[in-house]
Every structure is written in C-alpha cells, then in structure tokens.
Design a protein that fits this description.
This protein has a domain of 62 residues. The protein is built from two helices and no strands. The N and C termini lie far apart (122 Å). The model has no long low-confidence stretch (mean pLDDT 82).
Length: 102
C-alpha cells in the first residue's frame, strides 16, 4: 500500500508543478477525425440496416415460395380427389339417361 501512496503523492507533486497556461484548443486535425469517425459510424448503421432489410426480404420471399408450393400441392390433391367422384357421377348420369331413353 505504501508503494501506491508514494506513486500517488509523486503524481500530485508533478501535477502541482505544471504551468497554468494550458491551451484550450483541440489538437490539429482532431475535429476532422471526430467528424470522420461519426460519418463512418453513420454509414455502418446504414449498411447494417440495409443488410437487415435484405434478410427480411429474402425470408419473406422464401416463405412466399413455400406457401405457394403448399397451396399448389393442396389444389392438385383436391382435384385428384374430385376426379373419381366426377367420373362416377358422369357414369351414373349416363346410366340414368339410358334408362329413360328405353
């Protein structure tokens, strides 16, 4: 603990010996770097938003394709189920017409 206290005391003595004339201006080019980093962050945010939108569109397209394929398959199954009944009705209808014609 004494070693840390000695280091802090030495640091405070050095701080007390410094000049009071400290420049309040930012270093040369500092503002340019700050603005450049701010713009880079803004562009990164825009890119991440574009990636998110792209992923949402791809997922929506995939869901649409799967739903369309399912609806098409279901439609075909309904048509296949209704064909035998349609043929049976046609056969029965033709049989009834033949009986009435005799």
């Amino acid at each position: 603990m004494n070693d840390v206290d000695g280091k802090i005391a030495r640091l405070l003595r050095s701080a007390a010996l410094t000049n009071k004339d400290v420049s309040l201006q930012a270093p040369f080019g500092f503002d340019t770097r700050v603005v450049a980093q701010w713009r880079a962050r803004e562009e990164a945010t825009a890119l991440s938003l574009a990636r998110l939108i792209r992923r949402v569109v791809l997922v929506a397209a995939a869901v649409t394709i799967v739903a369309t394929a399912g609806a098409y398959r279901e439609s075909n199954q309904n048509l296949e189920k209704s064909e035998p009944f349609a043929n049976e009705f046609a056969i029965a209808d033709s049989a009834i017409q033949e009986e009435f014609l005799q």
